[in-house]
Design brief:
transmembrane helix, transmembrane, membrane
């Protein structure tokens, strides 16, 4: 069987508010973050949570 891309609801619930906070932190006029360290932290957390949300399910075949 093929490994299908799984969808993890827990990481989706984490990614949604972090993504919204990331949008609030980003200044579209100057294309920078208002608080650089906080913006980078939000960005890294958002990328990791999206990666873990869409990670393939590995099931052991017997």
């Amino acid at each position: 069987m093929k490994n299908k891309i799984g969808f993890n609801l827990i990481f989706a619930l984490i990614a949604l508010p972090i993504g919204l906070a990331l949008l609030r932190e980003f200044d579209f006029q100057s294309l920078t973050f208002c608080k650089t360290a906080l913006g980078v932290l939000y960005l890294l957390t958002f990328i990791i949570s999206v990666f873990l949300m869409l990670k393939k399910n590995k099931k052991a075949s017997i």
